[in-house]
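#onboarding

Welcome to the new folks! Below is a worked example of what a typical request in this channel looks like: someone posts a single protein sequence, and someone else replies with the predicted structure as tokens. Don't worry about understanding the tokens yet, we'll cover that in week two.

Example request:
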Amino acid sequence: MKAIIIGAGEVGFHIAKLLTVQDNDVVLIDESEAACNRVNEQLDLQTLRGPGASPRLLKTAGIDEADLLIAVTNSDEINMLACQIADRYSVNTKIARVSNPDYFSMESGLTPNDFGINLLVNPEHLCVAEFVRLLQIPEAREIVEFEDGKVQLVSFRAKQSNPLIGKSLAELDASGLLTDTRFAAISRRGRSNNGNPTQNGNRHIIIPRGDDALRQGDEVFVIGSSLAVEQLLRISGIAFNQQLDRVIIIGASPIGIELARVLEENDTNVKLIEEDQAKARQASQMLKRTTVLQGNYLQFRLLEEAGVDGVNGFVSVTGDDENDIMACMTAKEQGAQRVLALVQQPRYLPLLARIPRLDGAVSRHLTVVSNILRLIRRGNIVSVASLHGIDAEVIEIVAGVNAKIVHKELTTFKTTFPENAFIGAVIRRERLIIPTGQSVIQPADRVIVFSMPGAIPVVEDLFAERRT
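Example response:
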């Protein structure tokens, strides 16, 4: 596949990396010499320096032969114009990152189709939706939904009081506690399955089998029907769909303002703190029932005056990673029940699990990448979600006619299905099935697979339609 990516920021870089691993022909365009140099040093692809919406530069990049164009610069206008040019060249799939909602509002009369855009990605809206999900399930570190929420993957930290600790998965399954749910993965600190210490005490990933048991401090990833996941969380002592009485938001960024707007519509008492006076004034004019405070959000006194002690949720979205993480740690120390941070830089993601006071985080670039991946994955994959806490993906894939995986019990694939991948759920004609070893996948089944990156090509091959 021939792909052109415009914008060598974290989103463009991450997508380019995934596409080159799959042996696609990728050209990346960016105006920054430093960004292009970074790509050239780390990835095996062609880079072009210049404006991404230049017809001449796009022609040089091979737009007349491209199958895919992804425009993810910080300029909505460049992204939209690039897609419009690509549409003139009959590029099959055009994806644009557009943050300003005014372009496609009811008043504008415009639609993404007017610019040839197949997938419109609004990072702010995506991040807000993820923050709301995390706020509604206290202690959940990550939430991914499939099939309009019918299937959920949720991660949480196993505390000492969790009654599931010490019991093998086989025991839990026999007792009926895992009906319509499965443990997809366990992130564990300190020692691997063979008992050897991991390097620097870092966490390692276990794809659990029947004899594996939960330990205190494990980060657990469970997948299943939304009702069954809720029941399992309640058994683990984790509240679900909590009423949000009070939330404090740090930062009058677009994400902060949109999050405040969503929460106040749900009758939540919202306070927003912004250090910049002009931004604070603008936020107070845009929001109806949110109390806007102006001042230094890292000062104990201001947080105390805002009522941080006992607040249901504390969300820091200034865009400065260090300050957002520090604000959350400060709020947690002062009594906030749940603290969440926006993370811009991917380098911080592996460190988040080592910060016990941080309850969760939303990665702007991974949130956008997950939405884009569902259109650019090859084969029968219809959606993909990249996880924050671990280097893994959850994919929704359709079993092809005559695929290797169909018409046989799953136990048949004990030696051929990757050890670092796991089938979590099957959707067959609107019916949810949590598979066992005796389950048989049928053609056209939609299957949710939890997988480490290296196993995805093998999974794709097993589900791919075979021509006879």
